[in-house]
Amino acid sequence: MKRSIVLILSVWLLTACQDTPVETSKSVPCHEPATQIKESITKKVLSEYEECMQMGPPNECIMAELEIRDKELNNAYKEAKKSIPAKSLKKLKEIQREWIVYRDMRCGFYYGPESGSGGLTDAMLCELEETIKRTSELKELY
Could you read off the pLDDT of 76-99 as tens digits, one per residue? Predict the structure, then answer.
């Protein structure tokens, strides 16, 4: 049962993200390289992040932005838990756990022994984009 839920969620997320822009005018498929992923989230990032990306090491900037976005995600999750019916709370928790598995698997795809020096950056940008998208989804619940 759990495997089928993971499979359904993964297939849905893979097909849904093909046509789902992250608050931009163009759609960015999930498998795009780091530069195109960055373009898709540019409007969502803080000005400090943009300044950091121009002046500092990119991975440190992405990590700092990810920490901010992860806090936003956690807050959105807490608010969503408060606003949904009690009977749906267990399902929301299950979906969130499965989303974490999906995010880690999807973004981990970019980073490996054969990924080269840009693989870590691609993986981190992927995680940032997925976190922003999931935060938006959760905010729609309340």
Answer: 999 999 999 999 999 999 999 999
The structural domain count of the chain equals 1
Domain with 57 in it? 2-139
H or E stretch covering 14: helix 2-16
Across the chain, which distance is largest between two alpha carbons, in Å?
Answer: 49
* pLDDT, tens digit (0-9, with 9 covering 90-100), for 2-16: 333 333 333 333 334
pLDDT for the residue numbered 46: 55
Q: What is the pTM of this model?
A: 0.65
| Closest of 134, 128, 107 to residue 59, by C-alpha | 128
3-state SS, one letter per residue, for 48-73 = HHHHHHHHCCHHHHHHHHHHHHHHHH
Encoded tokens for 51: 């300044």
Name residue, tokens 């608050």: 23
Determine the Cα–Cα distance for residues 103 and 105; give it in Å rounded to an integer.
5
